[in-house]
Amino acid sequence: MNQDATSFHSFTRDKLEAFFVAAGHQAFRARQMMKWVYHGGITDIQAMTDLSRKQRDWLSASLHFALPEVHTVSRSTDGTIKWVVRVTNGNCVETVLIPDRGRNTLCVSSQVGCMLDCTFCATGKQGFNGNLSVADIIGQVLIANSDLAQRGEAVTNIVFMGMGEPLLNFDNVLDATSLLMDDLAFGISKRRVTVSTAGVVPGIRALAAATDVSLAISLHAPRDELRDTLVPLNRKYPIDELLAACRDYLQVLGEKRSLTMEYTLIRGINDSPREAHELVVLLRGLRCKINLIPFNPFPGSGFERPSMESVRRFQTILLDQGHSAMLRTTRGDDIAAACGQLVGQVTDRTRRQERYRNLEQSGQGTPLVPVREIA
Ligand code: SAH
User: Fold this and answer.
1) Are 82 and 140 in contact (CB under 8 A)?
2) Which residues pair with 292 in a beta bridge?
3) Nearest to 337 by CA among 91, 107, 70, 87
4) Does the C-beta of 121 come closer than 6 Å to ligand 1?
5) Which of these is catalytic: 94, 165, 262, 275?
6) What is the chain's pLDDT, residue by residue, as a tens digit (375 residues)?
7) Interacting residues of 207 by C-beta distance below 8 A, sequence separation 6+
């Protein structure tokens, strides 16, 4: 591979057209090439016979199709598959495929580790080492698709719920969603591509100005004093500001679509009827579906999953008050692939791993990250 070559998968349609035009070729040639690659599965540029010889030689010298290297693959007894992939900066991130009754949902990572350090999430404990490129994100989808192709299937739904905070890698995530939803590339409906955020309010507003991808909010608590302790970012963007941004985003989604509110239920922390009733009031009038996720344990988390009984009780209160509340069943926990369990291999740049190890050893439990660490 030519060392100076750029990954083909880093180009959105607009950018590929601009790339062709800048080299003196017509924009529609870019669209022809996208069809060869994404529809035809052809990466041998010389086989793209509707491009001229000259164009093919130029493209061969300029572009490559290499995917992130697969470090390990784990297959759960429930059909969930987890890939650990090595991305451009040399670290590893995790990607999880969740097949469910004809649906193939892929949970992709957007960053190496995460800056946000939500107290109940394993990814945050790894610290942070940079953003994934567009090609790193798209590469995760191509790796899953090549596995699924063996049984004549493909990824049908994408959720940005792997490692990282997608709205803190805004430009690359936006370009990746554009390719995922582009008919000339993956052609996945905007209803089936979901960006999930811990509540980066300026990012939600920027997203609203740029696209209409589906949006999930990691809420986890109905009041600031509790949310501050679970999602430290809340101290910067409290719940009322977050919900105001959500209302604006709903304008973009239009009448027929709704937001997803994620709520991880943690025993004795946010799972009592009090929180359920507060949530009912907080979300009244906001077009959303609530996803309840029983906490997935990981070593040293210091938190526990609630009993099934209290999970049901929480859900029933929401349902009785007219909210849509789905219980997310845990998948892939035998391969540590469930929500909040993704860790990859992160060379920490924030010294957070070290800090957590020290605290764990001294028995002081989990610290909160000062908000000024957050970009
Ligand atoms: N940073 C983004 C993307 C991660 S999505 C976001 O926060 O939305 C992963 C989802 O799983 C989030 O809703 C997250 O809060 C939740 N989660 C994290 N750790 C978890 C755990 N241990 N058990 C259950 N859910 C968890």
Assistant:
1) no
2) 263, 327
3) 107
4) yes
5) 94
6) 666 899 999 999 999 999 999 999 999 999 999 999 999 999 999 999 999 999 999 999 999 999 999 999 999 999 999 999 999 999 999 999 999 999 999 999 999 999 999 999 999 888 999 999 999 999 999 999 999 999 999 999 999 999 999 999 999 999 999 999 999 999 999 999 999 999 999 999 999 999 999 999 999 999 999 999 999 999 999 999 999 999 999 999 999 999 999 999 999 999 999 999 999 999 999 999 999 999 999 888 999 999 999 999 999 999 999 999 999 887 887 888 887 788 888 888 887 777 776 766 665 443 333 222 332
7) 167, 170, 174, 195, 213, 215, 249
CA nearest ligand 1 atom 9, residue: 161
- In this structure, what token pair is assigned to residue 114? 């995460």
Q: CA 331 to CA 314: how far, in whole Å?
A: 21
**Which residue's C-alpha comes closest to atom 20 of ligand 1?**
340
Measure the CA–CA gap between 146 and 18, rounded to whole angstroms. Answer: 29
User: What is the C-alpha to C-alpha distance for residues 10 and 137, in angstroms, rounded to an integer?
Assistant: 9
Q: Is the pTM of this model over 0.90?
A: yes
Other C-beta atoms within 10 Å of 171: how many?
11
Closest CA relative to residue 293, chosen from 189, 203, 218:
218
- Indicate if ligand 1 lies below 6 Å from the C-beta of 229: no
Q: How far is CA 311 from CA 100, 266, 318, 319, 337, in A?
A: 22, 9, 11, 12, 21
Whether ligand 1 lies within 6 angstroms of the CB of 30 is answered as: no
